[in-house]
Amino acid sequence: MGKAPWAAKRFVKRWMTTALKSRIEPIRKFVKTIKKDINRILPFAGSQLTNAIAEGLNRIIKMIKNRASGFRTLEAFSDIIFLTIGGLNIPAQIPVKFRAI
Predict the structure, then answer these.
(1) What is the distance of C-alpha 8 from the center of its chain?
(2) Does position 5 have pLDDT exceeding 80, yes or no?
(3) What are phi and psi of 26, to 5 degrees?
(4) Which of 68, 97, 99 lies closest to 83, judged by CA?
(5) How far apart are CA 76 and CA 70, in angstroms?
(6) Alpha helices (runs of H) in the chain, residue ranges in sequence order
């Protein structure tokens, strides 16, 4: 759990105690959910995993979607996504005798 797993556990426990004192029902419900899943949350907190790659891909796909006003099928849309972010080297796929450059 990272460098100081005890610090993460202490922080979450203190936050839950403070949140329960708020007497706001949605927050109290959220704290109960955290209590139930605390043994799965704390190890993740120390893993340093993020969803940055997924968010970056999502941004690129949204940009493609905004440019892709002419796609009529989901297959054509997914093809352009793979061409854009799939790392495909199109010139390398063309046989040498057909290359113009």
Answers:
(1) 22
(2) no
(3) -60, -35
(4) 68
(5) 10
(6) 5-20, 25-45, 52-67, 74-85, 90-93
10, 6, 35, 47 alpha-carbon torsion, rounded to 10°: 130
What pLDDT sits at residue 29?
94
Q: Which residue in 91, 92, 90, 72 sits closest to 82, CA to CA?
A: 90
pLDDT band at 84 (very low <50, low <70, confident <90, very high): confident
* Each residue's pLDDT tens digit, 29-38: 999 999 999 9
Q: What mean pLDDT value characterizes the chain?
A: 82
Length of the chain: 101
Residue 23 belongs to what H/E stretch?
none
- Extract the tokens encoding 28: 């109290």
Q: How many CA atoms lie within 13 A of 9 on its CB side?
A: 10
